[in-house]
Amino acid sequence: MRAVQSLRWAGTVFSIPYIQEALRSDRLVGIRLEAVRMLRKIGSQFAIQPLEEALVTDREAGVRIAAADALGEVGKKEKDAARALGSAYAQERDTGVRLEIVGSLGLIRDRAGLPFLVTAMNDRDLTVRLKATQVYGRILGLQ
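^ that's the sequence the OP posted. Answer follows.
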């Protein structure tokens, strides 16, 4: 944990491979959550791929939710995050994670997320459908 935290002080894209390794392989949820937090803080285009990987592959819903949230923040500057969120949405089974993905697409506020939101408006869960409809309307209102 201390080694991962010490990388935070570097705070540069050069630390991403080390953070990504902790995110991939550490068995402790707390360390994986800290790795997601650090990638969010770095916030560059280079953080998108490891966050997308965590969103798609991590076994803990809490880590996947944190990764979706981080992608939403990174996506405010790097619009490629919308594609990463959309492709993860299609594979996600957990309602809470799908809801976070939809909310994160709303943070990005880019038309690139609209096709994924249309899909989410047909989600099996009412809460996800309502959130997707709200986000869709908000994005269209900004354009």
